[in-house]
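Input record (one chain):
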Amino acid sequence: MNEKMNEKMNENESNATFTKQWRLIQLLSLSKNGLTLEEIAQKTGQNQRTIQRYFALLRENKIPLIEERDKTTGLKRYKITWSTPHFTPDELLAIYMARPFLQPMAGTSQWEAMQRAIDKIRKSFGTKLLQHLDQHGASFAKTKFGSSNYRNKGGFINDLIEAIEKRQKTVLLYTKAKENTPKPLKISPYALVYDDGSWYVIAHSHEREAIRHLKVDRISEVTLTEDTFEKPAQFSLSDHLSDSLGIFRESPDAKTHRVKILFDPFCAKTIREKHWHESERYAERPDGGVLLELRVKELGMLKRWLLSFGRHAKVLAPKELVGMIRKEVADVGKLYEE
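The corresponding structure, as predicted from the sequence alone:
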């Protein structure tokens, strides 16, 4: 037990050190004239001895740290100057074409970094080649139907990324799905997940003492506290989401349902083309349809998904899901009664 605790403490310390080094790399990479030790200490909140230790680690990892003496003050100034990597034309094209698919990060520091990279690519090309790239780029697009707009929430995503990296407990001003008034919610954020056009933060809620999936759209304020947390050693994001349907999942103690859905030939091809769940099993039907079997705990999201297929999908099991579908169809029918 002590050995595992020591390993976890070492992992936490290593993550914290890496985060501080990464921020130092960002700071020195963006400084054209370099910074003195005192200036770096003021901007990072680290003492000069710690910064010198980080310098040694950067050099050990072959980061191009440059040390120059200021001719006016005589003080040493530090900066990082990267040599321009050689990209083949198809690699540059791939980066350039990726812009629409990174739109969900708009407003974040990652998005700004991508824009700087794109700007450098544009400046490295001649006019005719740039025109060709723009024409080629017009052939790629990402649809926006049902997607959230995060242009005014990029700062929140930045703060959440920082809280995840530094493992800082965070207070959100959050509006729950069935409420209209935002309330403070203290969390320990573990990860960010992009699902079906929206960002969600996977976090331990100190209110419920359980892991919750919180939609970033419903956050109106993010405050990082001075308190830190330790993410459970057994927590794995991939394992956590393996039982889910997209971002939706029941508690680990919930009942597992064996679901059987019959899709007719009209939409069977669509079903075969995509991955839906880790437990999925297919059985072809003589008429060209397909029988899909799943083992899931969350039935609410499954119901909403199945209703999108209308009469082309029929639930065979379990009875609970059949009843949910029947009630929903009946309720919808009432909306159209004259």
